[in-house]
Design a protein that fits this description.
The chain folds into 2 domains: 257 residues, Transposase Inhibitor Protein From Tn5, Chain A, domain 1; 36 residues, no CATH class. Helices cover 37% and strands 22% of the residues.
Length: 342
């Protein structure tokens, strides 16, 4: 609820405002502060997802791919760390705005870590010439999915034939890789390294391709695809934590800006959960627990909270099964952070 115009400043309801630029910097700053020293390499995972809408929210459009009215937020993660949550309408290209977000984050990261190797990783929805050109010009590496085409499939025809022969002999899925230089007929500004996977599964062929700026000396073809590119699938779990566990899809406000603020609230909640896992739950059996598990076992519990002059007392039931973990959390937090004095 908002206070009517002209009411005294002490009125109960006031409009919530925020500085979007500071919010953007906050997420990256939290990521940087989570490291005691600069890593040698970081991988920024970009992905878009759907946020279904069931009303007449501002910016609601029907998206043919997701087959619903929705928003299409952009997420950027580095491992478990959230670096960007950007609410967008769904009547756009999935990669729209990715270059600007990457440029902003890379500049901020290099202020603290000037020598770190930064790798952009994304599916074929982010394989755009402008984005790759920017990476080439600014010393950022990338590995991106590449949509199949007849020209690409022809490049791995021999490998696909070998995979089929092996499949018929073993009756198990078989795959071979080919490393080659490739350039599109019109869109790309230069030739780039492409790795093609020729795979025969039960009942069908499964050719896949990725384009990268990483050299053969850094990653062989199989390592590049299996160890580096396929690892991006874990980002889907992080997005599920946002939407299913921390309600990032609660975008039911009438205005787009209010819904974006709700997305940011969910993002901040995720940062708190990440910090709790990283510091408070270190050394416990819940160290790698999902946000939903932490909420149900540690936060959504019955307790009596009482305040004194010097202490806050949280009294749980004597039969509460996670008392020792609670004590360990307190011990870890006290050891990691400076004590707060009022």
């Amino acid at each position: 609820e908002l206070a009517p115009a002209g009411v005294p400043s002490k009125h109960r309801y006031h409009k919530i405002v925020c500085d979007p630029d500071k919010v953007d910097r906050f997420f990256v700053d939290a990521f940087l502060r989570a490291h005691s020293e600069a890593p040698s390499r970081i991988i920024l995972d970009f992905d878009a997802t759907d946020d279904p809408l069931h009303g007449a929210q501002e910016g609601s459009f029907f998206n043919g791919y997701y087959d619903c009215y929705c928003y299409m937020p952009l997420y950027v993660f580095c491992g478990d760390h959230l670096l960007c949550a950007r609410l967008r309408p769904s009547n756009i290209d999935g990669a729209l705005g990715a270059e600007a977000e990457l440029e902003r984050m890379v500049a901020q990261i290099r202020e603290e870590w000037p020598d770190v190797q930064i790798i952009l990783r994304g599916d074929s929805g982010f394989c755009r010439s402008g984005l790759m050109d920017w990476c080439d010009e600014n010393g950022v590496d990338y590995i991106l999915g590449l949509s199949r085409s007849s020209r690409l499939v022809a490049k791995i025809a021999k490998q696909m034939k070998k995979a089929k022969k092996k499949f018929w002999k073993t009756q198990e899925s078989a795959r071979y890789y080919r490393d080659f230089q490739f350039r599109t007929l019109k869109s790309w500004s230069r030739s780039r390294r492409v790795v093609g996977k020729a795979e025969q599964l039960h009942g069908k062929e499964n050719p896949r391709f990725v384009v990268t700026s990483l050299s053969k000396e850094e990653f062989s073809a199989s390592e590049l695809y299996e160890d580096l590119y396929c690892a991006r699938g874990d980002m889907g779990n992080r997005i599920k934590e946002q939407q299913l566990c921390l309600f990032a899809d609660r975008t039911s406000s009438a205005t787009f800006s209010a819904n974006h603020l709700r997305l940011w609230f969910s993002g901040v909640a995720y940062l708190l959960m990440t910090e709790l896992r990283r510091v408070g739950l270190k050394g416990t059996k819940l160290e790698n627990a999902q946000c939903s598990t932490i909420r149900t076992k540690l936060l959504k519990i019955g307790a009596l909270v009482s305040l004194s002059v010097r202490r806050i007392w949280v009294k749980c039931a004597s039969g509460y099964p996670y008392q020792r973990i609670f004590a360990k959390i307190l011990e870890n937090l006290r050891a990691h952070y400076m004590p707060i004095r009022v």
